[in-house]
Amino acid sequence: MTPLRCTALAALALLPAATVALAQAASAPQSHAVERTPQLTAGQAAVKPGETLTLKGRGFPRNAHLALMAGPPDREAERIGGAQTGRRGSFTAKIRIRARSSAGAFVALACFEGCGVKASARFRIVTP
Would 85 be classed as within a structural domain? Predict the structure, then answer.
């Protein structure tokens, strides 16, 4: 048998094993995919009644509608608006603080799927 013919037969013998390995790799779950943890930040640590609070979120599902909520840390939050994420799962929302809002510490929430996926940020409403 010639060296060229031996090489060709060896390559054919390896072909089924390589095909099986490629098929297994294609069907295996992608373990290198990184899960992103949603994050929310308040543009200002303190706002006055009547001012605008900027909320920025990232790490959410892409092209998702989120509910924005806020309230004191020891009570249930109320809906204050909504936001739409882009292709990268981020958003910026501007929320006007009501003129008659009480001063104090608050927690803002960005919620997706009934708050199954959420992030929070703290801010304060201060009196003028």
Answer: yes
